[in-house]
Design brief:
Its EC number is 2.7.7.87. The protein is an alpha/beta fold. The protein has eight helices and ten strands. The chain has one domain: DHBP synthase (Alpha-Beta Complex), CATH 3.90.870. Helix 1 crosses helix 6.
């Protein structure tokens, strides 16, 4: 395992393209990443994290335009993307091509959890020639550990799981230590699925939800 700084991010991109797993920092916490189109690599993430297979990974797109090419994007989703991407918001969006969704089961089908990320994770998406699947670097479940927010915690995660990681990108301590906000955006159905960094009041302001139930507005 090689520990590198963010200015050596190309090494992480090459590792992902070769089917490997890598860890990169975000403002929230460290993320375990792989090629979203590589079923074997995605399976190793689920195994390493002991993550239930029905809990999809995050699809990290390069840009809003890249999202539009793969997914149906509602008017509400467009408003949210314009306001908060790149940022700590993920949208549950239906695939344009159901067959493509089936090829990317690890990130969800018929809908996927999609983001355009800021910082190092977004830069990694730009550098990598394949789509990225990501999840927090920790063991899942009630017997698991909190998401890693320091390099030391990442190394403890690697040691405890015996994860095979050629590259870990050291970004120091992650200051926010909070979840992405998740919003489901289907035709006629927009709702906050999980609260996180992007506050419900900010979502309500963008979507004109004043006076409405912010966790179930459609």
């Amino acid at each position: 395992m090689q520990i590198v700084k963010p200015n050596d991010l190309a090494l992480a991109a090459h590792a992902i393209e070769a089917g490997e797993l890598v860890v990169v920092p975000t403002q929230r916490w460290y993320m375990l990443c792989c090629d979203a189109s590589n079923p074997d690599a995605c399976a190793r993430i689920f195994t390493t994290k002991r993550r239930p297979p029905d809990k999809s990974l995050l699809f990290v797109a390069q840009s809003p335009e890249a999202v539009r090419q793969r997914f149906h994007v509602s008017k509400e989703a467009e408003f949210l993307a314009a306001a908060f991407w790149p940022g700590d918001l993920a949208l549950l969006l239906p695939w344009r091509d159901p067959a493509e969704g089936e090829r990317h089961q690890a990130v969800g089908a018929p809908e996927a959890l999609v983001t355009v990320a800021p910082g190092t994770l977004g830069e990694l998406a730009d550098l990598t020639a394949v789509p990225i699947a990501a999840t927090s670097a920790n063991v899942s479940g009630t017997e698991g550990t909190a998401p890693s927010i320091t390099l030391e915690e990442v190394l403890n995660f690697v040691a405890s799981t015996r994860a095979d990681l050629p590259i870990v990108v050291d970004g120091g301590a992650c200051p926010i230590a909070n979840h992405l906000t998740i919003i489901r955006c289907a035709a006629g159905d927009t709702e906050i699925v999980r609260e996180g960094v992007v506050h419900p009041r900010a979502v309500a302001a963008v979507l004109g939800w004043a006076g409405r139930d912010q966790t179930a507005a459609g």
